[in-house]
Design goal:
Blueprint: H1 3-14, H2 22-40, E1 52-57, E2 59-60, E3 67-75, E4 78-82, E5 87-92, E6 99-100, E7 105-109, H3 112-140, H4 146-171, E8 174-176, E9 181-186, E10 193-194, E11 199-204, E12 210-217, E13 229-234, E14 242-249, E15 259-266, E16 277-282, E17 292-295, E18 300-303, E19 306-313, E20 316-328, E21 331-335, E22 342-346, E23 358-359, H5 362-369
Parallel strand pairs: 1-23
Antiparallel strand pairs: 1-22, 2-17, 3-12, 3-16, 4-11, 5-7, 5-10, 6-9, 7-8, 9-11, 12-15, 13-14, 13-16, 14-15, 17-21, 18-19, 19-20, 20-21
Helix pairs in contact: 1-2, 3-4
Length: 370
């Protein structure tokens, strides 16, 4: 369409006189085009951006790279042997490192005091028997009461018990090995006065398994279970990695350190001895309770074991109930999410359930908050 034709059409539309000249019609057309161009230059109205949030992925409840702790090698059955009665030790036939057999006499104390008590108890027992026989004869003749005879019988029982105790103590003047093994430590010397219960020698039963006893922090012990396979290293076996198995997890923590005792069974080796230091590594294995870990900032309204998080589903925030299992450092343990689910860790306080969000660079989000 030419400018002349456009100007004529506009003139008729606006009701202008039909006798306008060609120059006026062209000017009217140019002016109309300029107005239309100006109107089309306005910026379109843009929609506001969704709220910016920061997210993190839920991770399987595992230890980062496994957990390694130090412990001490011991035989599962190690015995502190002592005398039941005190006295002067007159003989000690073994030293640390010596092998022993079951029933072997390891030490003796001077039996004089024990024998004297046995002799005294035997004399008291014999006197109680004579007293009972005499009073039984007098009772038969009617000279003493039945009550007196019963008292004599009670005295005889007491004398018999005292003699048995003294005789039992007499047998403990010798220290005998209860099982075959090896002497780990000698804690007393010949000529010393040992007290009842005082350790004289410590013996390990070599037939019992070799175990590694270690203390594990309470925050880590929740992922250690009996039967779990572990690995261990010992300085005396450089370059070797031993396979072991968790056999016991303590039910109480040490009141001084707060560590929970854990016992790991290791294969017996001639090179491994009680008292050696070893390191045990518990692998990065899931706890088995379906729990995951997320940054603590993702938890909303925790109350007991109930809490919520905003889970990212597509580009929307979905408020999701979870089972709260507790904090460990800057992480929260919970159930109700799968590993890999993304949760909102920053910006969640400004959004609602189902709202569309956009994931922003944490640095940019921090700058926006400031």
């Amino acid at each position: 369409m030419t400018l002349l034709t456009l100007g004529l059409t506009l003139g008729l539309t606006l009701g202008l006189p039909s006798g306008l000249g060609p120059g006026a019609l062209r000017a009217l057309a140019v002016l109309s085009l300029m107005v239309l161009a100006a109107c089309g230059a306005r910026d379109p109205v843009t929609a506001p951006l969704p709220p910016a949030v920061e997210t993190a992925a839920a991770a399987s409840d595992v230890g980062a790279g496994g957990l390694t702790v130090s412990g001490t090698l011991e035989r599962q059955r190690e015995m502190n042997l002592s005398f039941r009665v005190g006295g002067v030790m007159t003989a000690l036939s073994v030293d640390a490192g010596d092998p022993v057999t079951a029933g072997q006499v390891l030490a003796r104390i001077d039996p004089s005091a024990v024998n004297a008590r046995v002799t005294q108890a035997d004399a008291e027992l014999e006197r109680a028997r004579r007293d009972l026989r005499r009073d039984e004869a007098l009772f038969a003749q009617g000279y003493v009461s039945n009550q007196r005879v019963e008292d004599r019988r009670s005295a005889l029982k007491a004398a018999q018990a005292a003699y048995d105790a003294a005789a039992f103590d007499g047998r403990w003047s010798r220290l005998v090995a209860p099982a075959g093994g090896v002497v780990l430590e000698r804690a007393a010397q010949v000529g010393e006065v040992v007290q009842p219960g005082q350790t004289v020698v410590r013996v390990a039963d070599l037939a019992s398994p070799l175990v590694l006893r270690a203390g594990v922090a309470d925050r880590d012990v929740s992922r250690i279970v009996p039967g779990q396979q572990v690995t261990a290293t010992v300085d005396s076996l450089p370059g070797e990695v031993l396979s072991g198995r968790v056999v016991r997890v303590g039910q109480g923590a040490d009141p001084r350190t707060g560590a929970v005792p854990v016992e790991v069974e290791l294969p017996g080796r001639p090179e491994l001895r009680s008292g050696l230091t070893a390191k045990v590594t518990f692998p990065s294995a899931a706890t088995g309770d379906g729990s995951v870990r997320v940054p603590a900032e993702a938890i909303l309204e925790a109350n007991g074991d109930k809490a919520h998080v905003f889970r990212l589903k597509g580009d929307r925030a979905v408020r999701t109930p979870v089972v709260f299992l507790g904090f460990e450092g800057d992480q929260a343990r919970l159930r109700g999410l799968a590993p890999g689910d993304r949760v909102i860790t920053a910006g969640g306080g400004f959004i609602s359930d189902g709202e569309r969000v956009r994931v922003a660079d944490p640095r940019a989000l921090a700058g926006a908050v400031k």
